[in-house]
């Protein structure tokens, strides 16, 4: 039975990963930061862990909470999207929220979780965004978010070199109907996650450290 870890699983894309992997018979360890979300994860068949990825003390507890595990698929899904464009400077709070949630949390998770993924010769996917692309950027909407997800992609590309027995990727989920994606998004969480699970399963060594779309299409350039 494969072991799956979903970091940031209270709702949206993260919860859908939990739902689908549990339905497939996997053992799923899933994190959230509120009592209600932890209870919802338990009810969904997951082993819940309390983690606030933006709180270094909280996320640094992952190492002992996961001591001895071998993780076949780890997913870093937690994300924050502060509004705003390049006509205004970001507030310190908005910058810190995006950078701590989308980048620092992932950089703190990597040294704790990647060795456990290596132990299973598994895969570690980080949910990035098409908005991180530097090539072909179409507007500055979500400026701080774009910067944070581009930084996440670099964290993934560079960390890959230190964990040769794990396969790390940055993965765009597409535009998905969640609290973050809004009602106009073309993909449901179920459709996005179904495609991403297929993509993760089909990753090849040549895709190590790269940035890939939900359906497996390589972005090619960053
Ligand atoms: N929806 C889209 O169209 C889209 C497009 C591109 C990329 N993404 C990325 O996909 C990922 C999931 O987003 P979503 O669409 O599912 O959005 P969502 O429904 O708004 O979910 C965001 C998730 O991140 C968690 N989170 C935020 N801050 C956290 C923290 N400090 N510690 C732990 N968890 C935290 C939330 O937990 P709480 O419930 O505790 O707040 C929630 O589970 C994000 O990384 C997002 O950037 C989404």
Gross CATH architecture: 3-Layer(aba) Sandwich
- The low-pLDDT segments are none
Instruction: Report the top-level CATH class.
Output: Alpha Beta
- Outline type: globular
Q: Name the helix and strand elements from N-terminus to C-terminus, one letter apiece.
A: EHEHEHHEHEHEHE
Question: Could you please describe the fold and organization of this structure?
Answer:
The protein is an alpha/beta fold and 222 residues long. It has a single domain (3-212), classed as NAD(P)-binding Rossmann-like Domain (Rossmann fold, 3-Layer(aba) Sandwich), CATH 3.40.50. The protein has helices spanning 12-23, 35-43, 56-59, 62-65, 92-119, 143-159, 189-202, and strands at residues 3-7, 27-32, 47-50, 73-76, 123-127, 167-171, 211-212. Strands 3-2-1-4-5-6-7 form a seven-stranded parallel β-sheet, with helices on both faces. The radius of gyration is 16 Å and the shape is globular. It starts with a strand and ends in a 10-residue tail after the last strand. The model has no long low-confidence stretch (mean pLDDT 97). It binds NADP nicotinamide-adenine-dinucleotide phosphate. NADP nicotinamide-adenine-dinucleotide phosphate binds next to α1. NADP nicotinamide-adenine-dinucleotide phosphate (NAP) binds at residues 8, 10-14, 32-34, 37, 52-54, 77-81, 101, 127, 129, 173, 175-176, 178-181, 185.
């Amino acid at each position: 039975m494969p072991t799956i870890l979903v970091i940031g699983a209270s709702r949206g894309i993260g919860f859908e990963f939990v739902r689908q992997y549990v339905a497939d018979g996997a053992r799923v360890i899933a994190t959230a930061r509120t009592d209600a979300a932890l209870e919802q994860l338990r009810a969904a068949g997951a082993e819940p862990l309390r983690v606030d990825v933006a709180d270094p003390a909280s996320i640094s507890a992952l190492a002992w909470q996961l001591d001895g595990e071998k993780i076949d698929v780890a997913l870093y899904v937690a994300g924050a999207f502060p509004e705003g464009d390049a006509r205004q400077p970001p507030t310190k709070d908005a910058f810190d929220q995006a950078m701590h949630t989308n980048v620092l949390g992932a950089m703190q998770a990597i040294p704790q979780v990647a060795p456990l993924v290596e132990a299973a010769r598994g895969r570690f996917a980080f949910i990035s965004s098409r908005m991180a692309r530097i090539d072909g950027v179409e507007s500055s909407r979500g400026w701080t978010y774009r910067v944070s997800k581009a930084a996440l992609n670099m964290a993934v590309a560079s960390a890959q070199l230190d964990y040769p027995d794990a396969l790390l990727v940055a993965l765009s989920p597409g535009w998905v109907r969640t609290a973050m994606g809004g009602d106009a998004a073309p993909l449901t969480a179920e459709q996005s996650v179904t495609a991403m699970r297929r993509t993760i399963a089909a990753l090849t060594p040549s895709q190590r450290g790269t940035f890939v779309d939900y359906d497996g299409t390589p972005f090619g350039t960053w």
